[in-house]
Design goal:
Length: 191
């Protein structure tokens, strides 16, 4: 139940990483032109430019351009992100970079100019005539600042294939784990 302020208006609950991720999934429709890869990780590079690339989400267009979506839910977490080595060794096939944050965080001056910012905010309820405290009907994304194009290199097919394979195996690991929690007599019941 939402908290009520002194004026009687309902306050929205604290936005956490799970709510931000749900808003991203709703915003980036997988049936559309983009593919959304959660928890993308891959070893990349040659010679001295080797590393492990990790992202909260990578959005891949039909044209094979990749945009990294980085989820941050607090200013401290956001500021700490700037010290990570990803800004020095980001792969050339990441063509855009976007922070996805709760609307209350705004856009601090220390956020790099090339980084886009998407704000997550409560979506207004469809039931405006309903009396009582207003509850959000999920969360929506509003583009606060569009990202600059960092490069024009397309995502290699091998990288996308690796991410999709990893996603496939994670799905089956989770399914097997969940099926193991169902009682055997229920799992093996013949319909």
């Amino acid at each position: 139940m939402p908290k009520t302020s002194k004026k009687g208006a309902a306050e929205h609950p604290q936005i956490n990483a799970g709510l931000v991720e749900a808003a991203i999934r709703r915003h980036v429709d997988p049936r559309g032109a983009n593919t959304l890869i959660p928890e993308a990780e891959i070893r990349w590079g040659v010679g001295s430019q080797r590393g492990v690339y990790r992202a909260d989400f990578v959005m891949v267009t039909r044209s094979s351009y990749a945009t990294e979506l980085e989820v941050k839910v607090s200013l401290a977490d956001w500021r700490k992100d700037l010290s990570k080595p990803k800004w020095v060794g980001m792969p050339a096939w990441i063509t855009r970079f976007v922070y996805v944050v709760p609307e209350q965080l705004g856009i601090p001056e220390w956020v790099p100019a090339h980084a886009g910012v998407w704000h997550v905010r409560p979506r207004p309820s469809q039931y405006e005539a309903w009396e009582g405290p207003r509850r959000p009907d999920g969360y929506q994304i509003v583009v606060a600042r569009a990202p600059h194009v960092l490069g024009r290199e397309k995502l290699p097919a091998a990288v996308l294939g690796t991410w999709l394979r990893n996603l496939y195996y994670r799905y089956w690991e989770q399914r097997v784990h969940l099926e193991g929690r169902i009682a055997r007599h229920v799992r093996e019941r013949v319909a």
